[in-house]
Amino acid sequence: MRRQLTEGKVGLILLKLTLPMVWGVFAVIGFNIVDTYFVGQLGTNELAAMSFTFPVVMVLGSLSMGMGTGASSLISRAIGEGERYRVKRLTTDSLILSLLIVGIFVIFGLTTIDPLFTTLGAKAEILPLIREYMETWYLGVIFLVIPIVGNGAIRASGNTLIPSVILTVAGVVNATLDPMLIFGVGEIPGMGLKGAALATVIGRATTLVASLLFLHYREKMICWNLPSFNVLLRNWQNLLYIGVPAAATNMIAPISITFITSLIAGYGTEAVAGFGVASKVESFSIIALIALSASLSPFVGQNWGAKHYDRVRLALHLGFQFCWLWGVIMAIALSLGGSLIASMFDQNPEVIKVATKYLLIIPISYGAAGIILVSSATFNALGKPLPSVIITMTRMLFLYVPLAYLGSWLFGINGIFAAGCLANLVVGTWAYLWNQKICSIKMAIQ
Fold first, then answer.
1. Packing angle between helix 229-265 and helix 84-110, nearest 10 degrees?
2. Cβ proximity of 418 and 407 under 8 Å
3. Are 20 and 164 in contact (CB under 8 A)?
4. Which value, in Å, is the radius of gyration of the alpha carbons in the chain?
5. Span between the terminal Cα atoms of the chain, in Å
6. Cα–Cα distance measured from residue 257 to residue 276, given in angstroms and rounded to the nearest whole number
7. How many Å apart are CA 406 and CA 398, to the nearest integer?
8. Hey, what's the torsion of the CAs at 272, 274, 279, 284, to 10 degrees?
């Protein structure tokens, strides 16, 4: 819990933080890509069923990441201020609150599977497949939430290597179990989509055990004594002040994607499957941007807490430059190889066609999307979650969704993808200007 991010060359520190995070995010994305690959071998209906679950999985994942963001923001600034006991108390209370919240959402999810996915546009023949997957997945949500919050606490201390190792182990476990549980091996019967969900649950369970053990034995960031009610309530309030808007910010995207998925469903099951494949490939393509934004959060938090505002501004400058460079590289790569990548997941020509169109249009805006990620992470690290909510709402609800409906009417499915690209470009420029203004004001006051 040393303030190890407040000294040294900014660029070098960011590189040391981001490289392990790239591997960690790769493991998380690999989790999903491996599932998609093996499920795709079952058939187009199974792949479409999994694509329908993606928005719901993202909502619960967003809730977990919101709680992790709130915990990381509070803990990193407490470390920067040198308040050791408060760091331990915040870590413990964050884990307790996350456990309570996830229980409520699991109960709600299990009782609303059919009506929810029917509303999303799933047809009668797809619903049993969706139910088969989600009933198992919901029961393992606790193994998703607690490790995300725990790893957020570890990253807040400036350690991005251990969370990445933990996530990698989970990815390896999932990749090993997927073919065994989906198709069967030896005495283990093939369980189809249920097997994919079970492999995910078991993989996530390893992260739960590993992150809690590391927090307790290595970082000593867990308190085993009960706090006073007032202290607990105050910590929960501070956590929710950042965590709820951060969760809402993260949820806006999957909720909006729900509308987009419903819109694409009008073009057929193959279109939904193609959209699902392209979304998975996109997640892989922006790994470096996700890793950078996650790495900036503890850096900004510790330096802001230590009042080193000039280091924060320099870090953002370097981060924004990298976003544009990476965006250009990925746009070129996916425009040339999008169809080949899509064909690895599904051989259906219609699925490949839709995925290729997506990977030709949307990546043009990846640089701007990266700036949005970096800006949102920075605002949250500063304890200012509302700008992130406003930026994301504007991007998804006020631009992407309305423009997608208009684009679909005018240009078909290409219009939907063009709407997403335009929304990223406009809001990315706005987020950059807003972020720079906040930092400039603070430095002027200093």
1. 40
2. yes
3. yes
4. 21
5. 26
6. 11
7. 12
8. 150
Band (pLDDT 50/70/90 cuts) for residue 444 is very low
**Kind and range of the H or E run holding 364:** none
> Which amino acid appears at position 183 of this protein?
F
- Which amino acid, 219? E
Helix and strand tally (H, E) in the chain? Answer: 17, 2
Residue 222: φ, ψ to 5° = -115, 135
**SS3 of residue 187 by DSSP:** coil
Of 142, 147, 186, 153, nearest in space to 167 by CA: 147
Give the residue carrying structure tokens 């972020």.
Answer: 435
Cα–Cα distance for residue pair 128/147, rounded to 1 Å:
30
Instruction: Give me the number of domains the chain comprises.
Output: 1
Paired tokens of 382? 């500063």
The CA–CA distances, whole Å, from 11 to 48, 160, 222, 324, 366 equal 43, 16, 31, 16, 22
pTM equals 0.76
**pLDDT tens digits for range 85-131:** 778 888 888 888 888 887 887 888 888 888 888 887 778 888 888 88
72, 294 contact by CB (below 8 A): no
Instruction: Tell me the residue range of the domain where 160 lies.
Output: 10-445
Helix (H, G, I), strand (E, B) or coil at 318: helix
3-state secondary structure 87-133: HHHHHHHHHHHHHHHHHHHHHHHHCCHHHHHHHCCCCCCCHHHHHHH
What is the rounded CA–CA span in Å between residue 3 and residue 422? Answer: 40
Per-residue pLDDT tens over the stretch 7-46: 788 888 888 888 888 887 777 667 667 777 888 788 878 8
Q: What is the mean pLDDT of the segment spanning 410-434?
A: 92
Closest C-alpha to 35, from 272, 188, 194, 254 = 194
Residue 1 tokens read as 């819990």
Does residue 3 form part of some domain?
no
| Beta-carbon count within 10 A of 7 CB | 11
**Quick check: is 195 in a domain?**
yes
For residue 4, being part of any structural domain is answered with no
Q: What residues are paired with 184 via a beta bridge?
A: 189
Q: Is 224 helix (H, G, I), strand (E, B) or coil?
A: coil
Which range scores top for mean pLDDT: 109-123, 175-189, 273-287, 320-334?
Answer: 320-334
d(CA 148, CA 413): 35
What is the chain's length? 446
- Any domain includes 63: yes
